[in-house]
From TrEMBL:
Keyword Lyase on entry: yes
Taxonomy of the source species: Bacteria, Bacillati, Actinomycetota, Actinomycetes, Jiangellales
Broad class of enzyme this protein falls into: lyase
Molecular function GO labels: deoxyribose-phosphate aldolase activity
Reactions catalysed, as given in the entry: 2-deoxy-D-ribose 5-phosphate = D-glyceraldehyde 3-phosphate + acetaldehyde
GO (cellular component) term, any one: cytoplasm
EC numbers: 4.1.2.4
Protein name (record): Deoxyribose-phosphate aldolase
SUPFAM superfamilies: Aldolase
PANTHER family per the UniProt record, alphabetical: DEOXYRIBOSE-PHOSPHATE ALDOLASE
InterPro entries linked: Aldolase_TIM, DeoC, DeoC/FbaB/LacD_aldolase
Alphabetical UniProt keywords: Lyase, Schiff base
Originating species: Phytoactinopolyspora halophila
Family: Belongs to the DeoC/FbaB aldolase family. DeoC type 2 subfamily.
Length: 316
């Protein structure tokens, strides 16, 4: 459990000195221990009934995503249809949590989803680099929210973070959070560029202190993307943050999670690290596209006893 003896959390401000004192006072991550713990949890097996529940839970946690230069309104509308009814032949399959698109396609997604429970998420703030002015980030966010975005996925300026400009990163997140209004802010750390688990822990605490509603591993554009050990460190951070502040923050691993067995490993990791309170779409998401079809294939196999094949479901 993180101890905060060196500096009281209530004393932390957006100043470089205050943030540096706090963030560098956090306990170092046991690199070997984190990887061993994640590897050990990945070997856990679950019973058939639990697997059925886990598959439906994982489907309900997906942010179905398309973030390509070739995205079209037609592609987004098709994705929104699949998000609401992942398997048209089986109405018992739950809808996904959200669709995630570029800001200029938010209005298209909003119109396609209507009053559906599926949220509209938008990558704003200079995705995927995050290297634009604060004014552009705020304008990008306001426009996405005005067009109907329920959630904004912001990427931090990793260059500023790695240079130790914690105050700059803090102020940008706080300003974007204000621009979000009632929309939730999911902040992407791009952990593949942070190099160390200690940096992942510091970045997690920094963005939570600045007002993030969800901390997210990756854009999916940088390798490595989501990994179990990195997600473990982030889950420990949100657990300790709630214990300290009383505020619960969500977690979203994104990028490279394609198979049902991997999704279940993440759910076990959540349960064993942060606890059952995080086993809900409000608090844990998968940033994925190809994962959904594998979950649907495995789900149908459990019901019918045979695989339908990858071409049975629409491509994402």
């Amino acid at each position: 459990m993180t101890t905060l003896d060196e500096v009281r959390l209530s004393d932390v401000t957006s100043s470089e000195a205050s943030l540096r004192q706090f963030l560098h006072g956090l306990p170092a991550v046991d690199h070997v221990g984190a990887e061993a713990r994640a590897a050990g949890l990945a070997t856990r097996s679950i019973k058939t009934t639990a697997k059925q529940f886990a598959i439906d839970l994982a489907i309900s946690m997906i942010d179905l995503t398309t973030l390509e230069g070739q995205d079209t309104p037609g592609k987004v509308r098709a994705m929104c249809s699949k998000a609401q009814r992942p398997d048209p032949s089986d109405p018992t399959v739950p809808p996904v949590a959200a669709v995630c698109v570029y800001p200029d396609l938010v209005a298209t997604a909003r119109a396609a989803l209507g009053s559906s429970t599926v949220k509209v998420a938008s990558v704003a703030t200079g995705f995927p680099s995050g290297r634009t002015s604060l004014q552009v980030k705020q304008a990008d966010t306001r426009e996405a929210v005005a067009d109907g975005a329920d959630e904004v996925d912001m990427v931090i300026d990793r260059g500023a973070f790695l240079a130790g400009h914690y105050g700059q990163v803090f102020e940008e997140i706080a300003a974007v959070k204000e621009a979000c209004g009632d929309a939730h802010l999911k902040v992407i750390l791009e952990t593949g560029e942070l190099s160390t688990y200690d940096n992942v822990r510091r970045a997690s605490w920094l963005v939570m202190l600045a007002g993030a509603d969800v901390i997210k591993t990756s854009t999916g554009k940088v390798a490595p993307a989501a990994t179990l050990p990195v997600t473990l460190v982030m889950l420990e951070a949100v657990r300790d943050f709630r214990d300290t502040t009383g505020r619960q923050i969500g977690v979203k691993p994104a990028g490279g999670i394609r198979a049902t067995k991997d999704a279940i490993r993440y759910l076990v990791l959540v349960n064993e690290t942060a606890g059952e309170d995080w086993l809900a779409p409000e608090w844990f998401r998968f940033g994925a596209s190809s994962l959904l079809n594998d979950l649907l294939m495995q789900r149908q196999k459990m019901i019918t006893g045979r695989y339908a094949g990858p071409d049975y479901f629409t491509l994402d």
